[in-house]
Amino acid sequence: MGSAADDFDETERRRRREADRPSSLVARFGDDQPLRLDGGALLSPWQIAYTTVGKLNADRSNAVLVCHALTGDQYVASPNPVTGKPGWWGLMVGPGRPVDTDRFFVICANVLGGCMGTTGPASTDPATGRPYGVDLPLITIPDMVRAQAALVESLGIDTLFAVVGGSMGGMQVLEWAAAYPERVFAAVPIATGARHSSQNIAFHEVGRQAVMADPDWCRGAYLEAGRSPRKGLAVARMAAHITYMSGQSLHAKFGRNLQDRERVTFGFEADFQIESYLRHQGMSFVDRFDANSYLYVTRAMDYFDLAAPHGGVLAHAFAGTRTRFCVASFTTDWLFPTTESKAVVHALNAAGANVSFVEIASDRGHDAFLLDEPELFATVRGFLTGAARARGIEGPAAPRIAGDAPPTQPAVKAVVQRGGGR
Amino acid sequence: MSDAATPSTRPAPARIRNDLRVVAELVAPGARLLDIGCGDGDLLAYLAAEKGVDGRGIELSQAGVNACVARGLSVIQGDADRDLAYYPDRGFDYAVLSQTIQATMAPKTVLQELLRIGDKAIVSFPNFGYWDVRLRLMFGGRMPVSERLPYSWYDTPNIHFCTIRDFVALCREIGATVEKAVALDGNGNRVPFNAPWWVWNLIGAQAVFLLKRR
């Protein structure tokens, strides 16, 4: 029994080390290069942790930025140093995959406000020598993108061939295209929207309240107090997890099945498999994620409304854009339903933009964007192939067999990918 | 042979349907074009390759959209009745509606939208006044089902069939100028002579119209 608890502690210790000294690459920006935040503050010094896969070509024209979702990280296609799990989007990004690392130079950075090495609430505040905690200024999606833009610039890349991401990653993709239209040749926002809906804000608020109601949250100063609001964060994750799946997929997977028992216990144990599953999801999440980071990144999503600074007209955010867009949604995604993607598509149409849009039939809800969805891969591969042709660079390798299996490896079993991506 | 399964690297189809070829002939090189109901994207791919046309598409079926996007075309999933409203005025040189107007909920509105979005509209449709259709109705006494019109009345997506003369009347009603019209016979070949509308209405299995805003 004790050993399991020790494992959790060891995972959490590893993760806390990553906050300041990530295992990945990291770009540091000193006091002379402060980051201007939407909230009005100047952040300095600050750092952004990232990974790269593939080779940058001589023209520096084959760079693809992958933006991760809510609780993702920079380990898009390489093992996560905290959990040891494979990269969170290995089905999409890798050799022979749609975002083909044999052809593209792929960059993925931990978001601002995250906890895997980019400046966030778990990072040490150089002014005090203590973790920022909730003294870190609030972060927005445009702030995250501004930080990524500074990174991309520091890598000597003027124009990204593509920016790709799902969910919160998709919000960053849209923000990139709106804020830096000349620096994004192609944009692939998946299962996302140009603003967070009231319902989505509501779910996030439930999660934040669960964290803040945990006495171990210590008003945000739990790191110094040597504590951790594990229960609150686990409940937050449980609530959020429900929103990532469709009612259909939950029922297909768990139904009303009981967990290791013949009949209900007339008590409050996890009688049902779905309860046991959610508890497991909650507990394994708290090891790898910082509770304050969860508050910050959920808030960033809530604040996102791309049309707001453009007089409430989304089309104005994309006025005159020459970026090519490929928007994708999933039929059973109720967190970012197709209507949200279509609002983006209609705005792009109104702006005269070059846009493709696919609604993919899937019963897996929002999670589908991280899973083995051959239609999604075929769409992204086809889109990037066409865009690469227009850009004059080599596109992704053609799939050699029907569907979108990669040329060499068999498809990684989808369930392995769960957990890290969003 | 290795590229046999990679349409994405070979965008131009070697052959396209006859009615699409007629449509393609009406399009000026280098134009901006919106193809509504673009199917697998054959027309868009052909026009891009042969005439350097900057094309966009709208297609209802997911399979069609995926096929288009997978060959590098810019196509969105949507339909003529609901999605045209979001396009700006005169955003395109041509708005094309191939073999689709008879399947729309509101053909008149759709036609007006085409002429709002495009400087010109190209519309092709099966002619319900074709002699074969008339004979089947007259002597069979039932809604015609043929190779060209393969659906039974109860499961057809074609809810608004019209004849060539009906279409000409609608154009007049909405103030569209017919710049050019082509009738195709039962084999898909161009009817090679000019004739009054009532003749074309009898011998044309399909028609292709080039319309201009008046």
Automatic annotation (TrEMBL), chain A:
Gene Ontology molecular function, alphabetical: homoserine O-acetyltransferase activity
Keyword field contains Magnesium: no
Comp. bias regions, Acidic residues: 1-10
GO BP term (any one): methionine biosynthetic process
Subcellular location: Cytoplasm
Family per similarity comment: Belongs to the AB hydrolase superfamily. MetX family.
Entry protein name: Homoserine O-acetyltransferase
The organism's taxonomic lineage, starting at the top: Bacteria, Pseudomonadati, Pseudomonadota, Alphaproteobacteria, Hyphomicrobiales
UniProtKB/TrEMBL annotation, chain B:
Coiled-coil intervals, chain numbering: none
InterPro entries from the UniProt entry: Methionine_synth_MetW, SAM-dependent_MTases_sf
Domain of life the protein comes from: Bacteria
Gene3D superfamilies assigned: Vaccinia Virus protein VP39
SUPFAM superfamilies for this protein: S-adenosyl-L-methionine-dependent methyltransferases
Protein name as catalogued: Methionine biosynthesis protein MetW
Native species: Methylobrevis albus
Organism lineage string: Bacteria, Pseudomonadati, Pseudomonadota, Alphaproteobacteria, Hyphomicrobiales
